[in-house]
Amino acid sequence: MTISMQPPTSNDDLPYHKKVAADLLAAGLDLLGGRHPGSWEEGHKSALNEIAAQRPNEPQAVRITLEYRSDHLASVPQRDSMIFGLQRLNATAESKSKMRADAGRYLAPDQQPTADQWKGVFSGSATTSIVGAAGTGKTLTLLLRVIYLHLYLHVPLTEITILTLSRESRQDTAIELQRILEAWKREISLEAALGVVKTARSAVIEQIRSVAGLAGSMPFEVLSDAHLSALDDGRPFDSALTDRQRMEMEKCFNTLYRSNKRFAELVRAMFAASLRVRSLPVDHPEVVKRAPLAWKLSDVDGELCDTVEALWTNAGMWPLEGIQAARKQFSLRGRVYSCSGYVPQLNMHVVLGFDRSEDRYTRRSPTEGLETYKEVAIKRTLLQSYFGEPLIHLDSYHEARALVEALKAIATTPPAFEYSLGGSCSLPLLVLYNEAATLIDTLGLEVATVPGRLNFLANDPDAAFFESLAIFWQVLERSLALLDPPSFPYGRLFDLLSDRHAETLRYVPMAVLGQYRHVLVDNAEDHPVPVGNWLRGVFSELRRRDASQDVTSHLCATLTAAGDVCQWVYGTFGTSPKLLTDVEELFTSSSGGIHIQLMESFRSHQLLVDAGQNLMRNQSTAWGRATKAAARAARDPAPVMMLEMEPAILLSLCLDAFKDNRKVLVLINDDQDRAWVDGSIGDLIREERAAGGQKIRVRPFRKAKALEADVVILVGDPAAGASRWYRNQLYRLAGFCAGGDVTPADTVEEGEALRLAYVAITRARRRAYWFPNRAAGSAGRSATTLTSMSTELFRTES
């Protein structure tokens, strides 16, 4: 501050308005206990000058005043929350040059890496994302990076892990790692290669079993009485239950039903919903067709009830225990119709149907034109549309017997029944519990708490399903944890070793944790959210331990993620491409990350590359639109041929491929397509197998990744399923609602239909043929209808 050497003007000499302001300011300083710095310094200096003048022979004292900036009075160290520190790989120019030279000697001319692939191999950053369309060599780039880390930067293989999606891809990648190491004159056993190449599930099994007291832990998804190794980690997204799983779930379910009143109420509500006749809108085609006849049936409804009840009585099936045999009339739009009974325990009315064992020519009277079973069907359709109260329509004696048995024991024993969640196909309740819990886990949500964040319309039985799921799954997890050895769902295992539970990772020995110092993720677009959270925890724990070492200059960790968002084909199972698209945000690094895009396709010619991109052009996640076919893949191009569903055409295509000694891959969409393929070329496939050949393979669309063939034949038209309210809510909670999308699950399913077709086409090296079977597809939501297809790239055979 500059201090004026002129004495200040007296307040009394100031103009009136300035005098008032000065007095107020002075009063304020007095009130606050403050001072005017300039005045105080001026007075202090004047006093010192006066003392010096009185004692001129004494040396003057020197006074030093320390001044502090008010905003830095209390300095607090910042907290480093980065996943990776400042350490980088020591990727020297010498090591790069040496590997380039060796690659020139050890790899065939058509396997030499491109400039972009070399960037991925040599990346020194903590995080590297490698993206590229199908056939651009992403997996090869990862394998060459392993070579670089191990042989040129001298990183032990015990500190490198490649993560793949499935056991099949793990086996294939391990064999490929063996092959490429052999090219560099390094031999490695398949067992050792499988120690480097793992699935995320096998990796988390290995880690949890290294913790004291959890050595025998078994994941719930593969729970059985057999011994489990890390290689037996199950198939991802497979919800089929083993006998041991079913036993543990049934034990928990029965105990809860008897001990938890609310849970029993919810189960009974779902049981009633499973029995209730399916509602139909008034404009449904069947309602529109049958309503005129149904309204006329009102005049003879009493006779119809007498006829049907007589059939049930003669069969010894009426009246039934637990059902009050009391006919009750209802008015529907002024017309009167009757029910035959009532179930007090479920508060539901009962209408008797026509059992198939009865004579189908039975009529109410000899003069009646319509058979009784037709009149029953017409009345049923009317009730489905216009009857608003809970109604059971018993269509068979077998169905009635099962209902009676369930009602007898319902007070203490839960009924066995199938339930339709969201209007989809009916499945056993425990199977649905497992499927829903797996989806919620995969989305990165908590099974026990997520139902409280969902909302449903009044009387929607799905609300009871999710409330009961929350109760059941909590109790099941606790009971599984008490088993000897304990068992945990994979979602819980990933969560226990994630950044949310850093304390658990501290119990994992360094010999196990250190295997993940350098992680390379293949097919990163389809790994679930919990896998990303687990890796965040692993790298954070490595950094914490490294910081306690005496020397840290040589300690470094890296993550390399490779994939193609256009090949994200498990989104309907809850996976997310964030591990690929958001790698720098998820795995923050002090030194930043590197993004590399591979632009050359070495598998397919340009017309097939463009056909795949044509399907994906309206998808916001589509990358690699500028992908070009490499020179060696550009021979003899031809568009995708769209063909009619003629068995003779399929057989001819396969025979022609066999004559040219080319391999064929047939991809099917559903069981109907599988049956059609078997009827068309099943004998040919069996003959070829019997002769020891393997020129033709049949696989589902979803299993096409990592496969390729000279000729690829698509059978069927991948389609999105019907919209489900609960799924859209779950996907919104999981953060899939980009741009305010209110139906993110529907968006994911529609995109997945296109992505499945994209993956299928890009498996082909030379030719692709498509039998879309449009009559079986969902109108407006199948791959061939979700986007406009270029006639230059998809040609219909005339």
Would you kindly provide a written description of the structure presented here, covering whatever features stand out?
By secondary structure, the chain is an alpha/beta fold. It folds into 4 domains: 11-72, no CATH class; 93-217 and 489-598, Rossmann fold (3-Layer(aba) Sandwich); 278-389, no CATH class; 606-796, Rossmann fold (3-Layer(aba) Sandwich), CATH 3.40.50.300. The protein contains 28 helices and 23 strands. The strands form 7 sheets. The protein has a 6-stranded parallel β-sheet. The protein has a 6-stranded parallel β-sheet with strand order 20-19-21-22-18-23, with helices on both faces. The protein starts with 15 loop residues before the first helix and ends with a strand. The model is unreliable at 1-5 (pLDDT under 50).
Keywords, please?
798 residues; alpha/beta; Rossmann fold; 4 domains; six-stranded parallel β-sheet; 28 helices; 23 strands; 43% helix; 12% strand; globular; disordered N terminus
The secondary-structure class comes to: alpha/beta
Number of domains: 4
Instruction: Tell me the CATH topology of the largest domain.
Output: Rossmann fold
Count of beta strands: 23
Strand content: 5-15%
Largest sheet: 6 strands, parallel
**What gap, in angstroms, lies between the N and C termini?**
91 Å
- Specify the CATH class of the largest domain: Alpha Beta
CATH architecture verdict of the largest domain? 3-Layer(aba) Sandwich
What is the typical, i.e. mean, pLDDT? Answer: 89
State the share of residues found in helices, binned by percent: 40-55%
- Spans where pLDDT lies below 50 across 5 or more residues: 1-5
Q: Let me know the CATH homologous superfamily of the largest domain.
A: P-loop containing nucleotide triphosphate hydrolases
Oligomeric state: single chain
Q: Major sheet: order of its strands?
A: 3-2-13-14-1-15
If helices are DSSP runs of H or I spanning 4 or more residues, what is the number of helices? 28
* Radius of gyration computed on alpha carbons: 37 Å
Global geometry: globular
